[in-house]
């Protein structure tokens, strides 16, 4: 029973990735356009995430990283945290991720810088 939640999360993430791996986001009409991109023409930190996931599922890490570097890094981070969570659940220990406020501010600042830079001419390599 204690493994139900991490295994349920894995099943949900696997199903989502399987769908994105099957339904190509590079083909128009399958997914809605990012509202921020549609209204302002600016890329949000998540823009390119579906294309990144599709490339990741197909084993093309270069294309995945090119579509959205933050999302691709997040896939690996999620996998590491999930393994730790599963091991701790197996041992009957709770998963506690306690980050100091400075870490959360740093993550927010990184996402803000990523978003701004990918929308500037010199940061076009970060654009999807």
Layout of helices and strands, plus pairs?
Blueprint: H1 4-22, H2 35-40, H3 49-57, H4 61-67, H5 69-90, H6 101-118
Brief summary:
By secondary structure, this protein is mostly helical. It has 6 helices and no strands.
Give descriptors for this structure:
63% helix; mainly alpha; 6 helices
Overview of the structural elements:
With 128 residues, the protein is mainly α. 63% of the residues lie in helices and 0% in strands. The mean pLDDT is 92.
Strand content: under 5%
Task: Tell me the total number of β-strands.
Answer: 0
Average pLDDT for all residues: 92
Query: Which H/E pattern describes the elements?
Result: HHHHHH
Helix content: 55-70%
Please outline the major beta sheet. none
Shape: globular
Assembly form of the protein: single chain
Structural Rg: 17 Å
The end-to-end distance, rounded to whole angstroms, is: 41 Å
Structure class: mainly alpha
